[in-house]
Amino acid sequence: MTTSTIQIVTPNQRKWETVLLVAALVALVVSTGTYVETYGLEEKPQEILDWQISSFSGLQGVDQAIYNELIVAADEVNWLVYYNGYWPEDKDFQDGLLSPFYRDLSWEHNGSLTWTLKNVIQEGEAQGLTLYHGSGGTIENQGAFLLVIDHKHAGSAQIMATNIWWHPDRNAPVPETSKVASLVLHGWKQVIPYQGRDELERLNAG
Amino acid sequence: MKTLGKLFILLAATMASTLLLAAPFKNGDRMTVGITLHPYYSFVANIVGDKADIVPLIGAGYNPHNYNPLPDDMKRAQSLDVLVVNGIGHDQWAFEIMEASGGLEVPYIYANDAVSLIPVAGAADTSVNAHTFISTITAIQQVYEIARQLGTHDPANAEEYLRNSRAYATRLRKLKAEYSQQISKLDASNFRAATMHGAYGYLMQEFGLQISAVIEPRHGVEPTARQLAQTIDEIKAAGVNVLFAEKFFAGKLADTIQKETGVKMFSFSHISDGEFSPELFENEMRYNLESLKAAIESTIP
Predict the structure, then answer these.
(1) Which of A16, A21, A189, B232 lies 20 to 30 Å from B144, alpha-carbon distance?
(2) Long-range contact list for B49-55, CB < 8 A, 24+ apart?
(3) Cβ contact (<8 Å) for B114 and A195?
């Protein structure tokens, strides 16, 4: 039969062990924090100015839905001008089933906006502005929209620049002039989309 | 005679190499377009018609959510002239394949470049919904973007690509209009839906409908027992009466929810299964719209 003895071994510098461990932890946290602060990648949020609104985080519900249809429609309006030689009107939109102008279920659910073409405002022979104004929605908190197409002729080519504006008042009238300053003054906000290219930039930065 | 034969071979070889040098694409006169996800096969097929070849980067039977690249993928990647990608989180593996194959010089077409994105409906955070390929409106915008970009790589067929893209977009609009008309005749005032995947925000948005809750905000990640219990409580509290599961979803979890809450179960297609085909997107969207219509009908008292 054997007997065993238990021997308790205490650290050589017992009183310093805890202090050293805490000091090492503090040093680790501070150095990691400093490194991240200095070299860490910063996720830059999309810049939205006072007179703008984000389609991603600013517009809600039906306004966001209408905007997302309108941004696609803007592409098709340009096609229709190219092929037909005139700015599409209500009949063209109904024939082409083009949302958000086409009066279908989503148009109804999104407040049945009335869309009017404010014809080309000539600013000289070589350029002009065309507006599609959507207002009079039936949903209490929805806004009004303005699709502004700025077109310039460069030789035989036509350059189109499209902007979409939103007003919190669903009955906001079409402004007399569509200069940016005037729109802003009358409470219109330029809608800034968060697009695939923005997300791609964010993913690449990460 | 022997010398004449040698001369002939030399002449043929010179002509062949000249032709290859003049050919604008890796495989000769026809562009080879790579795609990542099923819908992009349909989009590209309808844009290019018979003017280009389409090569899916991965096989049809793999789940694109958690795909791990295989050696064969690298070979396919090397044959591409251009690659069409979702690019916003749904096919990040494609970039790994291209990098591994040394095919980094292959230009990408980012289908979502101009698409206006929305957050994942029902999710706690405001993460981006990458499922822009499950909707007709966002599909149309991607089709236009792809057509424009393909035209810059293949200028000889650019005009045809744009013409085809408009014809395809018109077909998609007709599909949407067809169901919009049918659904508009239904009383949707009692329709309150939840989905089992946060993929269907764009689809619901284009019909002016809302998603009240998402059971599984991340695809392939099943909720824990606690999360499930919480979701069941949320469904009960929200008064949800319809739940859309995934088309090929194993029904155990769905059955539990149906039993506990009394909701009616339907399913949506994620459009990421089956053989690649030009018609796949339209067929699967039709399935989704039929499902949506049936779900609304089921809520009419």
Answers:
(1) A189
(2) B49/B160, B49/B164, B51/B154, B51/B157, B51/B160, B51/B161, B52/B150, B52/B154, B52/B157, B53/B27, B54/B276, B55/B79, B55/B80
(3) yes
pLDDT in tens, A6-25: 777 776 666 677 788 888 88
- Pick B197 or A70 by higher pLDDT: A70
Fold that domain B27-175 belongs to in CATH: Rossmann fold (3.40.50)
User: In chain B, which residues have their Cβ closer than 8 Å to the Cβ of A61?
Assistant: 210
B interface with A, Cβ–Cβ < 8 A, is 87-89, 92, 110-119, 126, 128, 132, 137-138, 140-141, 144, 166, 169-170, 173-174, 176-177, 180-181, 183-184, 202, 205-210
When CB atoms are compared, the residue of A72, A107, A198 closest to B140 is A72
Q: What is the CATH number of domain B185-298?
A: 3.40.50.1980
**What is the complex's ipTM, to 2 decimals?**
0.81
Q: What is the pLDDT of residues B110-140, one digit of tens each?
A: 999 999 999 987 665 678 999 999 999 999 9
| Span(s) in chain B for CATH 3.40.50.1980 | 27-175, 185-298
pLDDT at B20: 46
Are A109 and B207 inside 8 Å of each other by CB?
yes
pLDDT tier, B9 (very low <50, low <70, confident <90, very high otherwise) = low
